Amino acid sequence: MADLPIKNKIRMLRFMSSEMTQKELAERVGVTRQTIMAIEAAKYSPSLEVAFKIAHVFNVSIEEVFEYQP
Length: 70
What we know:
Order of helices and strands: EHHHHHE
GO molecular function: DNA binding
Radius of gyration: 11 Å
Keywords: DNA-binding
Structural class: mainly alpha
Organism: Pseudoalteromonas piscicida
Oligomer: single chain
Domain HTH cro/C1-type: 20-65
CATH superfamily: lambda repressor-like DNA-binding domains
InterPro entries: Cro/C1-type_HTH, Lambda_DNA-bd_dom_sf
């Protein structure tokens, strides 16, 4: 399966946030660690709600987390 055209900076943002784990981020967003892992690896596109929640956790805009690359 090819990677999705939506790229993200979640891994970088996690490490800039006191090396937050995938599990910690998942708990704060309300999803599973496996979901965060799949989003980070560009194997799964998050819902708009989850994308906004992730951006909110890091106190950044959604555009600072996700980028569409056709």
